[in-house]
Design a protein that fits this description.
single chain; Alpha-Beta Plaits; 60% helix; membrane; transmembrane helix; DUF389 domain-containing protein; transmembrane
Length: 335
């Protein structure tokens, strides 16, 4: 279940209540007149089954509540209610399979900001991966994969492409390009510094590295792994299940490939730098492609599920009727 906290202008409260009561996926509806102060209005609270949340949020936005009031959504961990159970049964499909577009757009959109923390994590992860490449240590490679924040912008790019949001596409590409360039540049400098301190040397890169050589030797399996990781990552986001996402981060070699580009560039090993750059490009392309295809299939699947349940009440864009004006109250004569 999802909990909705809605601030509604008083002139639109009846429309919002009509919208919510007309959807069988909604439960626990409460209206607190005049409770909101900023912005002013009525406070409407309700719970909605996850599989019906996308329709409800869409109806509220068609009423303009997102611009004239406010809509807040929270995940409900535990809900002991027969009304909630009836709402979940009435909504078609399963909550774990539902796609709440506004939810994933908000989650992934936050990962497109070029914050200092984002760049710091990107850089730290790449340096760790660079050391792991030189030492031929998969443990360090796995740690760098988990620390790297690059899957966020990749997922945001997939969502933005499906929703045709040019602004988010631009921010996602900027976050990815700047993040990789900054991380690679700093890792090159770190490689030179560690070499000057005598902690590493060029021979470590030229030695046989059977455990990590796959990073700069892409093949057909690189596409397969990238596509599967993109599918798993997008499903973990849309189902609000963070468990599989850790496995996705570990399976994707974007950060290690960027690290190998940096280390090979620092030591002037051109063929490894080129191979690692190709591996990076393959992984990024495969993840985005798989993410877009997964979202398109999920959207088509949910459209089919809804079409099989015409008996379930669902608000449509043309079903939201304009609010009828209330008759003016007669004013008492002044004495």
């Amino acid at each position: 279940m999802l909990h909705l906290r809605i601030i509604v202008p008083r002139s639109r409260t009846d429309d919002v209540v009509e919208l919510l009561t007309g959807d069988e996926a909604v439960a626990h509806l409460a209206v607190l007149p005049g409770a909101a102060r900023r912005p002013e209005g009525d406070l409407v609270l309700c719970d909605v089954a996850r599989e019906g949340a996308d329709e409800v949020l869409g109806g509220l936005q068609r009423l303009g509540i997102d611009s004239t009031g406010a809509i807040s959504v929270e995940e409900v961990d535990i809900c002991l209610s027969s009304s909630a159970e009836r709402a979940a049964r009435a909504a078609p499909g399963l909550g774990t399979d539902a796609v709440v577009w506004d939810e994933i757009a908000h989650k992934t959109g936050e990962q497109t900001r070029l914050s200092a923390t984002y760049l710091a994590l990107f850089t730290v992860a790449t340096i760790i991966a660079g050391i792991g490449v030189l030492l031929d240590q998969p443990i360090l490679i796995v740690g760098a994969m988990v620390v790297g924040p690059d899957f966020g912008p990749l997922a945001a790019l997939s969502v933005a492409l499906v929703r045709r949001s040019r602004a988010v596409i631009g921010r996602s590409l900027t976050a990815l390009i700047v993040g990789f360039l900054v991380a690679i540049a700093v890792t090159v400098l770190a490689t030179w510094l560690l070499t000057a301190l005598g902690l590493i040397d060029r021979s470590m890169l030229s030695d046989d590295r059977p455990l990590t050589s796959f990073i700069w030797r892409p093949d057909a399996l690189s596409w397969v792994v990238g596509l599967l990781a993109g599918v798993a990552g997008m499903l973990s986001l849309t189902s609000n299940n963070a468990g599989p996402l850790v496995g996705v981060l570990i399976s994707v070699t974007t950060v290690p490939a960027a690290a190998n580009v940096a280390v090979a560039t620092a030591y002037g090993v051109t063929h490894e730098a080129v191979g690692s750059a190709l591996q990076l490009l393959i992984n990024v392309s495969a993840i985005v492609l798989a993410g877009v295809l997964t979202l398109l299939i999920q959207r088509a699947w949910w459209s089919r599920i809804r079409s099989r349940h015409p008996d379930v009440a669902r608000p449509r864009p043309d079903a939201v009727r304009p609010r009828r004006p209330r008759p003016a109250r007669p004013r008492a004569p002044r004495g």
